[in-house]
Amino acid sequence: MRTHYCGELNSRHEGEEVVLCGWVHRRRDHGGVIFVDLRDRDGLVQVVLDPDRAEVFARAEQVRSEYVLKVSGRVRARPRGTVNPDLPTGEIEVLGLDLDILNPSETPPIQLDEHGIEVSEELRLRYRYLDLRRPEMQARLRTRSLVTRTLRGFLDAHGFLDIETPILTKSTPEGARDYLVPSRTHPGEFFALPQSPQLFKQLLMMSGLDRYYQIARCFRDEDLRADRQPEFTQLDIEVSFLDEEALMGIMEGMIRTLFREVQGVELPEPFPRLTYAEAMRRFGSDRPDLRVPLELVDVADVLGGVDFKVFAEPARDPHGRVVALRLPGGGELTRKEIEGYTQFVAIYGAKGLAYIKVNAWNEQGREGLQSPILKFLPDQAIDAIMTRTAASDGDLIFFGADQAQVVNESMGALRVRLGQDRGLLAAGWYPLWVVDFPMFERDANSGRWMALHHPFTAPKDEHLERLESDPGTCLSRAYDLVLNGTEIGGGSIRIHRDAVQRRVFDLLAISPEQAEDRFGFLLKALRFGCPPHGGIAFGLDRLVMLMTGATSIRDVMAFPKTQSAACLLTDAPASVDEAQLKELGLRIRTKG
Amino acid sequence: MRTHYCGELNSRHEGEEVVLCGWVHRRRDHGGVIFVDLRDRDGLVQVVLDPDRAEVFARAEQVRSEYVLKVSGRVRARPRGTVNPDLPTGEIEVLGLDLDILNPSETPPIQLDEHGIEVSEELRLRYRYLDLRRPEMQARLRTRSLVTRTLRGFLDAHGFLDIETPILTKSTPEGARDYLVPSRTHPGEFFALPQSPQLFKQLLMMSGLDRYYQIARCFRDEDLRADRQPEFTQLDIEVSFLDEEALMGIMEGMIRTLFREVQGVELPEPFPRLTYAEAMRRFGSDRPDLRVPLELVDVADVLGGVDFKVFAEPARDPHGRVVALRLPGGGELTRKEIEGYTQFVAIYGAKGLAYIKVNAWNEQGREGLQSPILKFLPDQAIDAIMTRTAASDGDLIFFGADQAQVVNESMGALRVRLGQDRGLLAAGWYPLWVVDFPMFERDANSGRWMALHHPFTAPKDEHLERLESDPGTCLSRAYDLVLNGTEIGGGSIRIHRDAVQRRVFDLLAISPEQAEDRFGFLLKALRFGCPPHGGIAFGLDRLVMLMTGATSIRDVMAFPKTQSAACLLTDAPASVDEAQLKELGLRIRTKG
Description:
2 copies of one chain form a homodimer. By secondary structure, chain A is of the alpha+beta class. Among the domains of chain A are: 6-103, CATH 2.40.50.140; 292-421, Gyrase A, domain 2, CATH 3.30.1360.30. Chain A has helices at 54-62, 121-126, 128-131, 135-157, 198-206, 244-263, 276-283, 300-303, 309-316, 335-346, 361-364, 379-389, 404-421, 498-507, 512-526, 540-548, 578-583, and strands spanning 17-30, 33-40, 43-49, 68-77, 92-103, 161-162, 180-182, 190-192, 211-219, 231-240, 273-275, 296-298, 320-327, 354-358, 369-370, 396-403, 431-435, 440-442, 449-451, 478-483, 486-493, 533-539, 586-588. In chain A, a hairpin with a 7-residue loop joins strand 7 and strand 8 (190-192). At the A-B interface, strand 1, helix 3, helix 4, strand 6 and strand 7 of A face strand 1, helix 3, helix 4, strand 6 and strand 7 of B. Strand 23 (586-588) of chain A pairs antiparallel with strand 23 of chain B, so a sheet runs across the interface. Chains A, B: It comes from Thiocapsa imhoffii.
């Protein structure tokens, strides 16, 4: 039906006769001539219709925004002075020789031809087919397609097989709530939609398939936080007979190839690595944003004896932590700004935000500092703080003092917030592996040991013997890949021995009966020649969001759901016939 | 952990030290030496362990079938006379210098080292991780991965974007039963799992994305016939601004590329085409197997007047059909064989299977024929039948006479069955487009018009005006791709005009209210500049089944379900906690 896409025309096509199909992005009448900006997937081109061809002109007079046209015409240079340097096709225009209206359009509720007019996300989701016509949305979906193509290309070339695993399956143990699917053939029983293909990919390794990948749809019925979706996509990978070094090496190569081919950027080789312990110590986070040039500095050792309970108590508490965070040039912060940050850290449970302004330390020493807490701090403590933080005149030092978890969360978040607010973020991409995670963490409420990753993660060989005697110090063979402060991937070497898996279940207080009921098939499979194996999964939505600079994963999905897990476009979920429920052996529970 | 895959070693590696990882396929002790056939994804290699290395030998003595080993050794030529020409690695063996048992195995319930021992499919599904270790299963999954890679490569190169559509969605109108997913955030309401992404891919065209594809999981809660699965995979495609000729051309190129790259076979260019009417007339089927060199021949016109009700009544009935089917060399069929075919056609509703044996027509004419019905047939009818079927001595002619649908189904099936039984199938691949389908067919029970494809299929432009006055003769812009008697793909140009869509809904007795409730969002989208568009979907499981020569789609899926839609491996579906049901606002319906 057409000879070219609109967006591909340029001065090299001058004089050619072309046929274009697309949407009326904008129509203007000027000097007795009609100008139509015609839009397709590739871009915009200006079509000019003059009254010389009366019949064509009469049709052109009918067109409105978002009409679908087929236009035949001749490419010509734009008259001097009307070249549009902002448009790839801006040097030329198409003189319209014929025009068919393929389909009219009602006035769209979303204006596509004006920038800067903010449309509510509700309207965008309800008329998603209009929203997706916007060039920036098309560019995001195009990038997403290119990202998956590039990832697949790399994995195919490295001997990975693309294998599909079931969507209708058994409840998986990721910890979140499952979506359930009632079975008609087994009334009263349910399938679960997978939170990840974790157990199936391990079974594929037990099947000898050696290297597996899948771009897999996953499901979590969670109360949706800021940027979660009930269904999301992960690049899921598993390999046999490789240790973590080898797997991480291949994955680095994949991500490096991705950024080279899609972004034209060379990532560092190798990616830097931090242990979990060091990441928490320096950044208060296991997914530190290395673009922010600020670090937490431990000062508990010099504050344990001061006459200021706010510092002294956590400094002496083995579960407490006291840190300083120097903000270069922070001396210029106003009282109001500092008050704002105090409210910010309160979100994370911090009870206050102490600080010292460094006005003239070099010349005046202690007299050159300004702080409500200065009076509590002896010279020795101040000297130590100033030395460790390498503070100098014009800086400000924030303090966090509380239970370690509160300090890490609040000061880790403050570090990133300050980096953003103060324009301190380095440009570019900062990937990072975080390794040496603890195997377990204690649940604050129940006091029970919980798996930090999932219960199939292998402990380090050398920690295996103290699994029961000192689980808190056992490290796992897990690894996370962090990019600019976002975890984009995570995985581990798995347990491949029946006996070890049972010991871990024991420690997690999963009884043999529960284990049998939930993972019996996996435990059984471990006894029939399970190879050493491990894997990783990447959050594709989040990765594409980062790469496209979108601010929400909803902007990199064609048909996302709202925060209440509804589709405004199709009006799903919806009620169903009583007959359907009856067939499934179900009844709607009445209130009360 | 390894230097090579087992299966890649050959005489070029002689003298090299290698490290292999894999499973013990077979262990034999012979002449004081242990032979281990070590297996991995790539194949088998023979490892020889001799008592010279006492410690290694002692470990080798412990190994049993399906133990996981890491073996270091040296590649050497097999001694003269022990070369195994059936094995790609059969010229060499690996002298084991070291051996680690990475994991032992209990005795597997499926023997993997013996061919010809039939294992029940139930056992295969329950221990799928063992079944998948069989080389033929691995080869199938590997081919499947290669098939999807090749299809994607073609589509990527042709400007198609890979776009994901939702799994949690609204009931789709494919006609089969939906799987439902209760919503926790909207109690009493349900998502449906998609039977296909049909409406979403049309919406993507309305979004201006121009060319879409997806390897999409689809779901149907049907009573599983022979070779259906509750979840299956289709290659889903949709394009804008292309007519059926252009789209079929691209798709032919894709399938031709696929068979060239995966099978090393050149398919015909272009693929032959049949109209629906011709396919039914000549083969009694809209998915004829062109490997079978037999055709139905209409003979109603010469039998309407005979004194034999079985023929005469359907011959005079406008809904009846009478055909002859000549089987070359069929004169040798025994009475018992003919009886068998009579029972076979009865499955399709045929009340009998008349036949004429052509013993000596050339010399004796009518006297040379043998048939219980001969006495009813005047010379003129016999002459016409013999001429039209081109029968000659030694042949047999079967007859079908009944309602056209019964004749088509029974004689179409008999045609294929005879082709198989009599070894008449041509070798190779016979693709075929079937086009010019009717828009509608009348439901036999209700008398209502039903869409032969789906209600979004466009009628041919030239039939639009008689849509209401004579729907039975309206043809659609649908097309099916048939390969060796199996429909592997089907699609259509869609309705892109609001008014036409409403007329089709009217004709299908879908009221405006029902249309609004079920497809309101689509009808609305049609009013905002919908481009002309169309698409196609290929059944990936079935295509891979054909290409791998598997006899069931279960053999080309890693984790299929049983005929009662259960997973024997994981024991899904399963019962869930009362608390989970409560959260979903559901109650199990008690009997009675």
